[in-house]
Amino acid sequence: MHDPFRERSALRLDGKVALVTGGSRGIGAATARALAIRGARVVVTHRDSEEGALTTLRSLEGEGHRVLRADAADTVQLERMAAELTGIEGRLDVLVNNAARTRVIPHGDLEALDDELFDLIMRTNVRGPFATIRAVRPLLDADGGGVIVNLSSLAATAANGSNVAYCASKAALDNMTLSLARALAPRVRVMSVAPGLVDTELTKGWDPERRRSMIERTPLGRLATPEDVAAAVVAAVTSLPSTTGAVIPVDGGRILG
Question: Is 135 in contact with 71 (CB distance < 8 Å)?
Fold first, then answer.
């Protein structure tokens, strides 16, 4: 009987190409590093954070990594990025849709969440991953197929995130993950990784009392780190060959709290 765990090469990504959108900091940067450690050539995209993306690039093990500019809310830029990736690499094995937008707005403050911001969050967090997948699908379909991991959030189900639109966008992303897992099978697997509160620049700026309360309600008693989330992404790519259409929580057991 075939046992993938007896083949150490099954957990490696040597010769593979991985695209991480929004990889200039936080979860995106940690995911890029984790994929590079396992041998992948990593392409990091950024919207307007070239310096951060280059910092991520310099932190990656191995060779052949690169930075491309693409705003997840701009389909034309995404298509241009995909064409450039096709010309440079000619293949894509892993896509991590990490790029997202949000702003902390109390859920009861409906006036502060104006139409412009609401639409921008939806364009970036929902249409952006879809448009990225659409643009690179020919590359993912080639050479035996690929894996897509969408970065979602516990907010998709708990409805308790940075603002109402952000929560709704992540719920839509998870639903889209299920639809695309069905539509792109069997050549492409599609999953979501859904962190709870993660110790990033964004959450470090939150009210300390709110952070403390959330930690106390988490059975594991700590915030997830970007590296924790990156580990889940890598596991989805390398260790779950029969899994698609799943949402993998990285929340310290928050639902149990």
Answer: no
Within-domain flag for 254? no
The answer, yes or no, to whether the previous bond of 106 is cis (omega within 30 of 0) is: no
- Domain span holding position 156: 4-198+226-246
- Residue corresponding to tokens 């988490």: 218
CA distances from 249 to 125, 229, 236 (A): 18, 9, 12
In a domain, 30, yes or no: yes
Examine residue 190 and state whether it is found in any structural domain, yes or no: yes
Q: Which of 181, 178, 191, 182 is nearest to 240 (CA)?
A: 191
Closest CA to 21 of 98, 76, 94, 73: 98
User: What is the SS3 assignment for 223?
Assistant: coil
Query: Is 166 among the catalytic positions?
Result: yes
> Which residues are paired to 192 by β-bridges?
150, 247
Count of domains forming the chain: 1
Determine, yes or no, domain membership for 123: yes
Which CATH number characterizes residue 112's domain? Answer: 3.40.50.720
Integer distance in angstroms from the first to the last C-alpha of the chain?
A: 40
* Catalytic hit among 45, 166, 197, 249: 166
Q: What is the pTM of this model?
A: 0.93
Phi, psi for residue 84 in degrees, rounded to 5: -65, -40
Condensed to tens digits (0 to 9), the pLDDT of residues 99-151 reads 999 999 999 999 999 999 999 999 999 999 999 999 999 999 988 899 999 99
